[in-house]
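Please think about what follows:
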Amino acid sequence: MARAADVAYDAVRRMILSGDAAAGSRLGESELAETLGLSRTPVREALQRLGSDGLVEVLPHRGARVVAWTREDLAEIFELRALLEPYAAARAARIGRDAAVLADLAALCDAMEAAAADRDLGALARLNSGFHAAVIDASRNRRLPGMLASVVHAPLIVGTFRRYDAAELDRSMNHHREIVAAIAAGDPDWAEAVMRAHIRAAAANLNRKDDDERTR
């Protein structure tokens, strides 16, 4: 049976990544404990872990809140992703075509496309995080997961997929399929190029929508 702190961690993390807990919103121990049917101690431990992940800001004597990312924060995050994730995709393609890995990536693509069709953006955000983590794992570079853990998740907090129209969602889903195809073909240059285009498209979309909102 899962530890209460693990249950709390998974539940609150899902709330953040899906956008149900908005950036900057307060995460009260008492309220979360009541919602989850747990005591405050495991909730407190979960919030501390989420703080270590970079998803929650724990404030002395003031509780915790979901991290609110500035435009400058997101620019730095996407810059790091554009450097490191294309490398991970290229390395995954270079290492070889592992049938189990390719099957997992294809299954994630199927699930993301179904979630996109249903506009289930919370599920889509979680699956997208899983896809990128799986590509990073497939690179078999033991240092990359720790380096990318917080930056892969952070843009989801601000609701990246909530800003996509149908065409932009389709393009993102097609990128995922093409990354899998490049890894399956053992073509590191192709995998690297598509992943870089994928990250840059997400960054450009986020910046454009922010500019649109500021001019309203």
Notes: The chain has a mean pLDDT of 87. The chain is about 75% helix and 5% strand.
